[in-house]
Specification:
4-stranded mixed β-sheet, 19% helix, alpha+beta
């Protein structure tokens, strides 16, 4: 074993359960002793009144092992033997090992994702170069339900092609559209969805300044907007607003998830969904879902200023964020394509920002 012995802790929260109970906690202690590791979830929430955030015992084990497998040497064979050095302490009666008759929706992937994230944060103290959370802190995306002219129900479950939750790792900015662990999930393409259900996709594009800042930057999240063309019911559970994905090793957290719904195009009233929603939608109603970006890795003021310049040209980072967040000053403009790093001004601003952070 090359990992140093020691105990490493982390705490991660779900914003709220499906009825509004706030700050649902997952706590982990990873203890390394020689060639063995103990993953202890003692301290995790056990409030009996929680709803919709109870994770099955088997799923808890799976999400622990998913992150563990991502953080070990990639040449290590992933088979049954991988479980032998891992001891798991999963207290009964908690949200990670629920008592009888507690509903576990979808497995559940909340708090399952928070388990994985907590393991990643704890082990980032040991193997920072492989600290990429294999999670999707998505809650329940806005699902749209209606009936066709024959009376048959149709469903657009909101599992669309998007970018979300792709964090940076040491040496590499966040890239791709989803974490590697989500590779089994088929995402609906715009053309496919529009051919099956009465919706029109307005946009699916990455949003500037939504990737977590860091020495290496998280991938921005996408804004997916669609119109519903017939009377429908829309429902969603929104999380990762108060507690978005964490950055790693001094990196900034990811941007939050944001859901805005306009149920009646005649009034134009827009609802900013902060918890759950279940509402009827008129023809022409709009659903706009901003997916969270990935977390950053390492202190943002250590990012190569030239990399920030390229991000600005690629419309991943704004000129304002380049200055305010990364401490990078430019000469020239994007419009004239003569944008260049002002080295002296950048060094001076970064010294100023570093002093302010230290204070």
């Amino acid at each position: 074993a090359t990992w140093p012995d020691g105990a490493y802790e982390a705490t991660v929260y779900v914003d709220h359960d499906t009825v509004g109970n706030k700050d649902v906690k997952v706590h982990v202690t990873c203890t390394i002793e020689g060639d063995k590791i103990t993953v202890d979830l003692t301290g995790t929430d056990d409030r009996p009144e929680l709803v919709g955030v109870w994770n099955t015992f088997a799923n808890t084990r799976s999400y622990i092992m998913t992150q563990f497998a991502a953080m070990i040497d990639p040449n290590t064979v992933k088979n049954e033997g991988l479980f032998y050095p891992v001891e798991m302490i999963i207290p009964e009666g908690t949200i990670v090992h629920p008592p009888a008759n507690k509903p576990a929706a979808l497995g559940s992937f909340h708090p399952a994702c928070e388990i994985t994230e907590a393991v990643c944060i704890a082990l980032s103290n040991v193997v920072p170069g492989r600290a990429a959370p294999q999670i999707y802190k998505i809650g329940m995306p806005p699902a749209v339900v209606g009936f066709d002219k024959n009376g048959a129900m149709w469903l657009d479950q909101g599992v669309d092609a998007r970018t979300m939750d792709v964090s940076a790792v040491e040496g590499i900015d966040g890239w791709g559209t989803c974490p590697a662990a989500l590779g089994r999930l088929f995402l609906a393409e715009a053309e496919d969805a529009e051919g099956r259900v009465p919706i029109i996709n307005l946009n699916r594009e990455m949003t500037i300044d939504t990737g977590g800042a860091g020495q290496w930057r998280g991938q921005p999240g996408s804004l997916n907007s669609r119109l519903v063309m017939e009377p429908t019911l829309t429902m969603a559970w929104v999380v990762s607003q108060k507690h978005p994905m964490n950055g790693m090793c001094g990196g900034d957290p990811a941007s939050p998830y944001i859901l805005k719904i306009t149920p009646d195009p005649e009034t134009g009233e827009e609802i900013n969904v902060e918890h759950t929603i279940r509402t009827m939608m008129k023809p022409g109603a709009k659903v706009a879902y901003q997916f969270g970006g990935g977390g950053g890795f390492g202190p943002r003021h250590k990012r190569d200023p030239e990399a920030v310049r390229i991000d600005v040209l690629d419309e991943l980072v704004s000129v304002q964020a380049a200055r305010d967040v990364y401490g990078v000053v430019f000469t020239g403009t994007i419009e004239e394509y003569d944008l260049a790093v002002d080295v002296d001004a950048t060094e001076a601003l970064r010294r100023e920002l570093s002093t302010a952070i230290a204070a």
